[in-house]
Amino acid sequence: MKKLIFFLVILFFLFFTGYQVVKYQFGPKYSGEITLTGLNSETEVYFDDYGIPHIYAGSAEDAYQTLGYVHAQDRLFQMEMMRRVGTGTLAELLGEDLLDVDKFFRTLGIPKHAQWSADEWEKTGPSEIKIAVNAYIAGVNTFIKEGKLPLEYTLLGNTPRPYTIEDMHGIIGYMSFTFAMAMKTDPLVTKVARDLGPDYLNVLSVHTLPEHHVIPNQNKKSGKEDGKNLDKSSLQKLLNNLPVPLIEGSNSWVIGPNRTASGEVLFLNDTHIGFAQPSVWYEAHLEYPDFSYYGNHLAGIPFGLVGHTRQHSMGLTMFENDDQDFFEEKLNPDNPNETVYGKEFRPIISRIEEIPVKGQDPVSFEIKESVHGPIMNEVLPEIGKVTSNPVASWWVYVLEPTKALEATWRMSRSKDIKEFEEGAKLIHAPGLNVMYGDKAGNIAWWATAKLPIRPEHVNSKIFLDGSNPEDEPQGWMPFEENPMSINPPEGFVATANNQPDTLINGTFFPGYYYPGDRWNRIAQTIISRTDWDQNNIKDLQLEVVNETHSSLATIMADNVFLKDFENHKEIMALLATWKGNHDLDSRAPTIYYKWLYHTLHAMMADELGEEWFDNFLETFLYIRSVSKLIKTENSPWWNNINTPEIESRSKILTDAFNKTMAELSEQLGDDKKKWVWEKAVVLEHPHPLGAKQPLDKIFNVKAPAVPANEESVNKLAFKLNPDGIYHVKSGPAMRIILDFANVEASESILPTGQSGNLFSPWYSDQAEMFAKGQYRPQLMNENQIKSNSKKKIVFKKD
């Protein structure tokens, strides 16, 4: 026994020593001195208890060079993944399994657009913004050259190349693509329209329905304006191979002074993004003469897209406007390299790109473009299941160079609401709802995007006729006609990815909008009182109630064959009285979502097939159509086309319920009181290398179960499935609350932690806090930061 104990002690000592050696080799440095070539004066960085850097510099150039270094120290591998997606070079690092992803993004045109934007950037003369961007890039590259690279590079046998302005624009391009709803949805809608016809299509919510909630527009400005936000079988399976998350949606609301306890603006934002490790946002606080800003930064981007000064705050949600059309081309019968265009023919332009692939020779890949844009057939598998003709993508983002860097620079430095709006105008795509609040009492929302003017006959969700020039957009709406609301009489502005109301020009602009459940809960709650503060508003931000799904559960329970449910009266009563809460001890969601899946599958898989049905569940079309599908009694979807009889709604619901009860008994046992939601929910934040075992045990971050839900304010989304285990795939990438009565007391939380370095103490320290609905401070008070910080780096000039 003594020998065994001695052996275990030695083994523990060796393991501990080995871990410390590896940690020293790959772990970040948070204390001491670092020399930065090009620094103008000494810069101090204080790290708070959650690893957020507070940078005190003598100039913008020094601040951003320092930010580049500390950002890279914590998130370099995340930057690597993001830039490689945006430049189409994932296969060079991760191997041929990612080749199809590179082909997809290259065909879509993001790397080409990044190069174009970088070229236009280089043509501009010296400016403050250019100095700041170049300084940030220099800071990143100093870390790449001189810092301790994270463990991931050693495991992959790779060292990073220098970071460039083209990489930065590639990251912006990827994040502009990320919502991708047109690519997921339009082929499906076109298939239903062509193969099944209008009776089937009419039961879906291809466009916003009257019962959906819209965001009020108030284009006329008012108030305090002068006062001082890989498997090629389907696109979704291809996207599942991405080593970086996708933006899913967001909430933001800003409450005016007349509805708050303090009499000052209350600002909230929670962006919904795919869960990953590290999470998307990197927080940093910058202080230099005439500038003080606390921001949330994307990997590789120097300026915070969401953040605040002591005078104003900015946030965002996805606008979800339709900015991508697909044109089905007709080939010239005498020349397959030309397309029909009216009474003329237009050439198909081809180019060959060499895609580097790890461990093998580069792969030559041909990209073809028609007059409407890149032809997507080879990289968007769904197209080939709809038509054999070439289909081209017309996408607003790639039509002009991005000015996102200039826009975020100007918005973060605006002195008043007018200056802020001028910055917001520069965003041409993707469509963003930019949210604003300030110390002077102003609140505002702008939908920022270049909105195409489409002909009245065009349904932008169905493939258009590439041979007919009259199907093409006719121009652009002026920014002044975009959806917006500035100091509205209701005393608040809110966006939750839902449809803006009719514009002043009479347009009800099409998009991939959510039905507005979240917006309605936010709006109805805000107007219920006038004493909102930073504490009582948390209940709304953390709310997990969805009344739409509870009403559907009632309808479903009311329309089964009652004689079949003598043994399930208690379950039926539970569903009939469910108020839509998704608390972990609730049983209703466990039963409802499995029942809903089997109902929808029985309704639709016979017509669509398994693959298209699975795709349907990944689109906004499912979220927006589910109510109409369940409520429409005489829908053709209820009938199973593979049987001789005509199935009714009650028949489908009854069979689906029986299947649900049998499966839940097998899954969770016969004691129905133990069928609680907590047993059905799983949350794990996946690292890019976590797809390979046993690296998942090392890099992934597991979290406690969260109250997963569909379209509650605290949206914690999952994919509907037959297994009854729901992996939460996305949710708030942060939760920000700020009261302008005391900006220095603002709060937030991240899903995992501030650092992406495995050996950082801040790799996953916020994961449990996030799951439990807790918050932590966003510090800006200099005395508080400096007196409490336990870790500090002094950056010295060379």
From TrEMBL:
<feature type="binding site">
    <location>
        <position position="325"/>
    </location>
    <ligand>
        <name>Ca(2+)</name>
    </ligand>
</feature>
<dbReference type="GO" id="GO:0017000">
    <property type="term" value="P:antibiotic biosynthetic process"/>
</dbReference>
<dbReference type="InterPro" id="IPR014395">
    <property type="entry name" value="Pen/GL7ACA/AHL_acylase"/>
</dbReference>
<comment type="similarity">
    <text>Belongs to the peptidase S45 family.</text>
</comment>
<dbReference type="Pfam" id="PF01804">
    <property type="entry name" value="Penicil_amidase"/>
</dbReference>
<feature type="active site" description="Nucleophile">
    <location>
        <position position="250"/>
    </location>
</feature>
<dbReference type="InterPro" id="IPR029055">
    <property type="entry name" value="Ntn_hydrolases_N"/>
</dbReference>
<dbReference type="InterPro" id="IPR023343">
    <property type="entry name" value="Penicillin_amidase_dom1"/>
</dbReference>
<keyword id="KW-0479">Metal-binding</keyword>
<dbReference type="GO" id="GO:0046872">
    <property type="term" value="F:metal ion binding"/>
</dbReference>
<protein>
    <submittedName>
        <fullName>Penicillin amidase</fullName>
    </submittedName>
</protein>
<dbReference type="InterPro" id="IPR043147">
    <property type="entry name" value="Penicillin_amidase_A-knob"/>
</dbReference>
<keyword id="KW-0865">Zymogen</keyword>
<dbReference type="InterPro" id="IPR002692">
    <property type="entry name" value="S45"/>
</dbReference>
<keyword id="KW-0378">Hydrolase</keyword>
<dbReference type="InterPro" id="IPR043146">
    <property type="entry name" value="Penicillin_amidase_N_B-knob"/>
</dbReference>
<feature type="binding site">
    <location>
        <position position="322"/>
    </location>
    <ligand>
        <name>Ca(2+)</name>
    </ligand>
</feature>
<dbReference type="GO" id="GO:0016811">
    <property type="term" value="F:hydrolase activity, acting on carbon-nitrogen (but not peptide) bonds, in linear amides"/>
</dbReference>
<keyword id="KW-0106">Calcium</keyword>
